[in-house]
Design goal:
The chain is mostly helical. It has one domain. Helices cover 88% and strands 0% of the residues. It is elongated, with a radius of gyration of 22 Å.
């Protein structure tokens, strides 16, 4: 569904201002490639925070604490 909305918005931009639409079409892969390191850093930060959380909650798990749902 998201891809359909993006395609529709791009088609509208193509009709209204075709040079910008073509520029976006050409530059989008470059922007995506440049953003890969930021995705890797975000994944590493998530992993690090999950590790810290598991270390902090380890005593509670050892003592048998169960979260109420």
């Amino acid at each position: 569904m998201k891809a359909l909305v993006v395609l529709l918005l791009w088609a509208i931009l193509l009709v209204l201002c075709w040079p910008i639409a073509l520029l976006i079409l050409i530059l989008w892969p470059v922007v995506w490639l440049l953003s890969i390191p930021f995705h890797i850093v975000a994944i590493a930060a998530d992993v690090l925070l999950a590790l810290v959380k598991s270390i902090l909650f380890l005593p509670a798990k050892i003592l048998g604490y169960r979260e109420k749902i």
